[in-house]
């Protein structure tokens, strides 16, 4: 039988020990910050009932859900007529009851509804787990990837939005990033702009177009707006709003004038100002608002989903898309029958952050060499001496290995070198007899004699 050449499924990756060390550095840094702000970790299953996920992401999103075939003979109860119809939309519910989770938000909503009698509101949770999407793989986009979500539900206080600004700032600084922008906008401001233009029914078309300003420029945005049903007169009103510049205060003052006739638009401005005031009060350095936070009127981020403040984070040190984002949603759990539970949350793009830190060489010196000492195995007879020593060192908290067989010394030293083990302990008959062991520093090549009693102190 011919051997099968192994390969990875498209859109997935292996992670080496060094890569895992870096990924865990990101995850652990984020967890530390999340916990500092009072958020607790939950986890949900990697797969959900298909009915839980279907219909929550729109038609395009539903197509990207990985379905799991029922176990056993999944076609047994399917009628011949249905099979012959070749209608996959009707067939799937008959042969698949489960699916891999598409994101962490819908499972979180399901969790809140199912545990509503057990959780205390406001409920502050973070979740760092993989999700799966049957998308076309490309650079920076995978079919299996991690999401790092942090949300609070059951509170409409804008203090939460302000703390997310601080969470972004503290976490990214802790990861070594120096120059990044936390962009903020408000759905109500966008609604107000659509009202002023007189095109409330085209709000989605408007925001989809202006959200592309950085990519296609003003001329491209204007062309797209005209194609989507806006007139030249509408563009004359929109253009100065889209091109607002100056400080955040300058932009807010200009918006107050532009949106004077829109109650909802003014409400959005009021919310942004309250968030800014909270940030200013909470920031002991009084620099975050001026140096890092930017009011961006063109920011939309899933307009139909969000209902209040919207966030997006970009690094200014590397050419990369957004490395984080989120916003306020008024009815997270309504999809499962629990109405009126408002919430707000943001996400960190772990995979993009990984690439940014890699490019900027910001990872700390690798601690991937989990083994600090290798004990050379000369022969089986000496194991009566080396095995208790192995146990003593591990009890003292030192990561140590005994080479599993009495291979040639060169092979054992090469093993230590390949794994980056910094010390090798030579325990031969002579060492056992006089109680002085030979400790070799693999980096310098220096060797010293040390007693077993002093070995622990020396390695620590």
Tell me what you see in this structure.
This protein is 43% helix and 17% strand. Helix 1 runs antiparallel to helix 7, helix 7 packs across helix 13 and helix 8 packs antiparallel against helix 13. It has 19 helices and 16 strands. Among the domains are: 138 residues, BirA Bifunctional Protein, domain 2; 87 residues, 3-Layer(aba) Sandwich (Rossmann fold), CATH 3.40.50.800. It is of the alpha+beta class. The protein has an 8-stranded mixed beta sheet.
Give me the CATH fold name of the domain at 179-316.
BirA Bifunctional Protein, domain 2
Q: How much strand content do the residues show? A: 15-25%
Principal-axis shape: globular
* Unreliable residue stretches: none
What is the CATH homology-level superfamily of the domain at 179-316? Bira Bifunctional Protein, Domain 2
Q: Give the % helix.
A: 40-55%
- CA radius of gyration is 29 Å
Total of DSSP H or I helical runs spanning 4+ residues: 19
Walk across the major sheet and give the strand order.
1-5-6-11-10-9-7-8
On the 0-100 scale, what is the average pLDDT? 91
Number of strands: 16
CATH top-level class of the domain at 179-316: Alpha Beta
Largest beta-sheet details: 8 strands, mixed
Name the structural class: alpha+beta
- Overall CATH architecture of the domain at 179-316: 2-Layer Sandwich
End-to-end Cα distance? 53 Å
């Amino acid at each position: 039988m011919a051997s099968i050449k192994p390969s990875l499924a498209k859109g997935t990756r292996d992670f080496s020990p060094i890569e895992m060390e870096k990924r865990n550095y990101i995850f652990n840094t984020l967890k530390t910050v999340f916990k500092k702000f009072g958020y607790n970790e939950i986890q949900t299953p990697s797969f959900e009932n298909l009915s839980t996920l279907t219909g929550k992401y729109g038609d395009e999103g539903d197509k990207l859900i990985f379905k799991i075939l029922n176990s056993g003979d999944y076609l047994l109860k399917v009628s011949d007529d249905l099979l012959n119809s070749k209608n996959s939309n009707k067939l799937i519910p008959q042969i698949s009851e489960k699916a891999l989770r598409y994101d962490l938000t819908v499972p979180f909503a399901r969790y809140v509804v199912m545990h509503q009698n057990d959780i205390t509101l406001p409920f502050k949770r973070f979740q760092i787990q993989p999700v799966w999407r049957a998308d076309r793989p490309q650079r920076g986009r995978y079919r299996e990837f991690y999401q790092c979500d942090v949300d609070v539900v059951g509170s409409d206080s804008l203090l939460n939005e302000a703390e997310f600004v601080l969470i972004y700032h503290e976490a990214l600084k802790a990861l070594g990033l120096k120059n990044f922008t936390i962009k903020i906008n408000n759905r109500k401001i966008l609604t107000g702009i659509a009202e002023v233009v007189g095109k409330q029914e085209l709000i989605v078309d408007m925001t989809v177009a202006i959200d592309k300003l950085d990519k296609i420029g003003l001329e491209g945005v204007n062309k797209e707006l005209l194609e989507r049903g806006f007139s030249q007169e509408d563009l004359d009103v929109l253009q100065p709003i889209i091109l607002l510049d100056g400080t955040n205060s300058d932009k807010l003052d200009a918006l107050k004038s532009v949106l004077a006739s829109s109650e909802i638009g003014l409400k959005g401005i009021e919310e942004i100002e309250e968030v800014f005031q909270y940030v200013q009060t909470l920031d002991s350095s009084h620099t975050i608002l001026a140096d890092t936070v930017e009011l961006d009127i063109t920011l939309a981020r899933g307009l139909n989903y969000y209902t209040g403040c919207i966030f997006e984070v970009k690094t200014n040190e590397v050419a990369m898309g957004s490395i984080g984002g989120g916003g306020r949603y008024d009815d997270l759990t309504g999809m499962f029958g629990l109405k009126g539970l408002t919430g707000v949350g943001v996400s960190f793009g772990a995979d993009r952050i990984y690439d940014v830190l890699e490019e900027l060489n910001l990872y700390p010196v690798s601690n991937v060499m989990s083994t600090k000492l290798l004990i050379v195995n000369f022969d089986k007879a000496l194991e009566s001496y080396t095995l208790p020593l192995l146990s003593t060192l591990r009890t003292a908290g030192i990561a140590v290995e005994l080479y599993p067989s009495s291979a040639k010394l060169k092979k054992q030293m090469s093993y230590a070198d390949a794994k980056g083990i910094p010390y090798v302990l030579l325990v031969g008959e002579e060492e056992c007899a006089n109680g002085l062991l030979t400790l070799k520093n693999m980096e310098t090549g220096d060797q010293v004699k040390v007693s077993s009693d002093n070995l622990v102190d020396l390695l620590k």
